[in-house]
C-alpha cells in the first residue's frame, strides 16, 4: 500500500499548482483534505526518498494517461494543467461539468487561470 500511496502522491503533486494546493478541476476545493505538501511530508515518514531530480531545467511535459490530464512545466515555477479526458462517466455525460479541454495556469508560482471548482 505504501507504493500505491507514493504513486498517488506523485499524481497529486503533478496536478497541484506551485503553491502546493490542488487545481480546481471538477468539484475540487481548498480545505477539504490535506494539501500535497502535507501528504508529501507523510510519504517521507513512510520511507519515500522523494524525487531527487525534481528541479526543472527546461520545458517538461507529462501525460497522466489514466486520469486524462496533462501537465507542462517550465522554469520559474510556470505550470499548465490541462484536462484531456473523455466526457464521462459514459452513463451520465452531464457530470462532465463542461470541463472538457479546460486548463489552469500558474506563472512565477502564482495562479493566473483557474477553473471555478465548487462553491
Automatic annotation (TrEMBL):
Domain of life: Bacteria
Coiled-coil features, chain-numbered ranges: none
Domain spans labelled Heparinase II/III-like C-terminal: 62-119
GO molecular function: lyase activity
Membrane-spanning segments: none
InterPro entries recorded: Hepar_II_III_C
Protein name from the UniProt record: Heparinase
Organism: Flagellimonas olearia
